[in-house]
Amino acid sequence: MQILPPVSIGTNRLLPRSWDLLAGILIMGAVVLFADASRELVQPLASLSRSPISLEPSQLPEYAFRTALRMLVAMAFSLVFTFTYATWAAKSTRAGAVLVPLLDILQSVPILGFISVTVVFFLSLAPGRILGAELAAVFAIFTSQAWNMAFSFYQSLRTVPIELTEAARMFRLSAWARFWRVEAPFALPPLVWNMMMSMSGGWFFVVAAEAISVGHTTVVLPGIGSYIAAAIAAKSLAAIGWAILAMLVVILIFDQLLFRPLVAWADRFRIDAEPSDEESASWVLRMFRRSKLLDALGTPFDKLMRWTWRFALPGRGPRLERAPSRIGGLVWYAVLVAVGAYAAWRISAFVDASLGFAEVLRAFLRGLATLARVIVLIALASLIWTPVGIYVGLRPHLSRVVQPVAQFLAAFPANLVFPVVVSLIVARELNPDIWLSPLMVLGTQWYILFNVIAGASALPRELRDAGRNLQVKGWLWWRKVGLPAVLPYYVTGAITASGGSWNAAIVAEVASWGHRTLHAYGLGAYIADATSQGDFPKIVLGIVVMSFFVVVVNRLFWRPLYWYAERKFRLA
Amino acid sequence: MDALLDIHDVRRSFPRPGGDDLLVLDGVDLSLHEGEIVGILGRSGSGKSTLLRLIAGLASPQHGTLSYMGKPIEGPARGIAMVFQSFALFPWLTVLENVQLGLEALALPDKEIRTRALAAIDLIGLDGYESAYPRELSGGMRQRVGFARALVVNPNILLMDEPFSALDVLTAENLRTDLIELWSQHKLPIKGIVLVTHNIEEAVQMCDRALLFSTNPGRVTTEIKIDLPHPRERSDPRFEDYVDRIYVEMTARRIERARPVQTAGYIPEGPLTPVSANAISGLIEAVAAPPYNGAADLPDIAGDLQLEIDELFPIAEVLQMLRLCDMEGGDIKLTPTGKRFADADNNERKEIFARALTSYLPIVAHIRRVLDERASHTAPRRRFVDELEDKMTEDAADETLRAIISWARFAELFSYDDESETFSLENPT
Fold this sequence. Notes:
A: mainly alpha, MetI-like fold, 3 domains, two-stranded antiparallel sheet, B: Rossmann fold, four-stranded antiparallel β-sheet, globular
């Protein structure tokens, strides 16, 4: 499967447009709305840990199953969101103008921040019952999965080859049939890739979302995340070892039973006529394809779909292009302006009531500290993994082994390993400002490694031979051949790694072992502390400042770098 | 006899960022009768594909009427099917599923869908490939699927948009003869064909009438009736006569269009085609060399150089614009400057070319002047793009600049840095 760039650099536009501003205001308004609602729910909700988490390893399969189930439910919601939201954005120019910047900004909002502001709200939906907490966890996972899937689907819908659309229209397929026969299949391979990336990122957040305290509200949902939290409180390294093992097994099962078959199956929908260089194989897919039972189960569904294709929506048959109505446009923009104004009003009321300029400055300075950490750590990870990745990628027998391991490590939720490191820091009395930092890239550095490996293996044989033929060796080789060849891939990996590190800061800059809690100076710790104190104005401020940093770094640094690398170094 | 298709006074334009519209088709009349193959011949950009999309109901004209069997065309009509240049097969559907697609939309019973699809596959010679995916097939086989898919809905009119141009010569010939054979034996369900092509021989081989299209805006300039029985032989002298006649017609029009390049101001009237300096030198050398010795018959030299008309004309047009050759009555003739160019060594060639560029292509002289006048001797690309976009679309302006940059580089008039998007006088030292 070829590696796709992160969807966040889909455009090479740098300067924000007014639509971006509106999107920012709308999202901030939504966050404020949630936080406000939560602040007013004053009564401390009963703690939901009815059945306390047991550290018995025999309980782990059940916990792991629950965790996996949450992931699947969130994935189902994400797919529904993708098919509706992205389709609407792609089909309607008017809606797209605001929906796309919304997605773009949403991608930059720290996911753990979503949990902090929404968990109380969800709990209040089903007071005293476990359902609300489950909803909050699923929503948090959803926010880690949905945006990039929707973005990828949107980008695919906008790039369906014109001849395919025309052919479908010539045969008078209805819009509904066109969606399922032309557009959705065309969008499938990138969507599957992004689902895989989403899942891989999602494990981190499901672990974090299962055991969380917002002020007086404590949520403990049975699952691997809560198990880890209990193990930390009990200072049990053995239990943490068991949890890591259970997670390994779960990720392996997902890989074998879900994603390998999906990727192999999606291969058929690739538009480039060239057969893929490495045949994606999956024993599960083979089994499905040979099984008569599944055929029998699928046929009625298939028939039903075919049957629905025969009906065009009334009055929406094949039609010629027409100018959009002016009145509709006016109404639409009026609604947008009204909603934007309402959001702005809520935000200003919220800020007035609770935050001074000094607080904003404090959050901003902490943001700079976290930024410095991200920069240093990504640079360090790049220095280490780029040469390693190139070395591995040029040796097929080696990359066959290392590549899946790197991809697996990227999916593995690094927060499971945090306690091991934190226990060391506590035992050795190390400086948390320095030694907590590596936790931020613990899980995300692998994106750099596997992207660089992919880039190096894609270097054409002839180019390598030409280099050897011209006696290009040593530093000259790295400068003129190795590094330029992998640059587009490296940037792709580094963007994902840096985005992930910002998110990880919220759980990495504050860490506990038993009764000891370590704090590093940074925006992540700021958000985490505000969350545990239930201080909603500070949570919102932290989220907004972090989103701001992520958006700015993306626009000013990663996007230009990506497009530069893409133009200059991409091997056609 | 009533016409299958009647097109009257059709105009179609596309909006441009600058404000005024780009006229692609203007005052086009066309009719198709039962049992007829009509060919539309013209250069790319002459709007012939746009016309085909209007007939297919995929777009609508700003002015004029299109009617199919007496009824106006509003949206894709049942009974008009199209074959696409790039095949437009759905890569995730098998051959059989691709062919069935159009029938499924007609809401026919499953059994009938299957029998009819299999019959079409049989007719077009795809037996045994039913379960293959398009990517497993060669280009020729893929286009056969395209034909089967179009024919299976039993259309009255078949529209073909350069259906053979993505295929190699041998495969294209094979597919053409098969198709003509089926057509003349009345085995195809269709009553009439509209074929868009830029290949003159293809038009003479297949069509009963050929309509020649002009560029900017596209309109029908000449209609040539081709009165030969099928199968037509290329070696037949009458076949060659028709090919020559079309060449003469097409070059005659080119002259009146290519002459008034020097307009008021320095912005060229139409977009320039990026033709490589190698191709320019190559054509001059070929015309200068025996057996042509300075003057050649266009069909002859096209065949000799294995160039299609669509590839030869842009090169010849640039030569004519730069006064390195003349085109008249289907012939190409070197001017004295052209002859000097042919005899010169590489450095002299660059000089001759540079002089020709600055004399006959005012935009080049303009860019050079701007660079000379500025203290930094650099200018951003944006500046010239903006000037060009007053007269042409964004894409056309982009292409025109690419052409200018490539010629200026050959002539060493100025250089261009793609990363910073700036023109400059300096050459890297």
